[in-house]
What we know:
194 residues, globular, Bifunctional nuclease domain, alpha+beta, 2 domains, 31% strand
Amino acid sequence: MEKIALKLLGMINSQSQSGAYTLILGEVEGNRRLPILINGFEAQAILFHIEQIKIPRPLTHDLFKNFADIFGIEFKQVTISKFAQGIFYSTLLCDDGKEQKEIDSRTSDAIALAVRFNCPIFTYEDVMSAAGVSVDEEPDIDDLATGGIGNQSEGFDYDKFTVEELEEMMNEAIENEEYEKASQIRDMINKRKH
């Protein structure tokens, strides 16, 4: 079966499930999108790596990448191989220099690792046909990348703080491992700077 190359376009708050996000993947050569519901932890793991937010200690996916690097394991590709009963199934193709092995993975973890290993993401036509959506025009990637994640915390007004104060608050949130709060403050800082 021929594989379809995908690219990560961004993520948005899930309208259907609290604390979840919709990861948006798009065909490299085409206009279909593959929306995948993921939880907040994986959403943060993906976003922090893409946005190059420095954290004091490695997250689980960073630890996994460090482990693979130390032992000479290379990630060749991620394949979203199946969509059944509303669940996406994925595999990681890994190479230790002697042989290649496929490892079963949750799709959210696979994407979090794909961005760290900078490896390609693929799927099959049956997955795109079952779960993909067509778009007539290119969405605003900036909106997709930060859509909803930069919303203000419940009842907290970041508008009254200067950019310098917000940067200090963001660093403090990172040190306290309050990553969702840190990403919200980061998005507020970005809005102010643009």
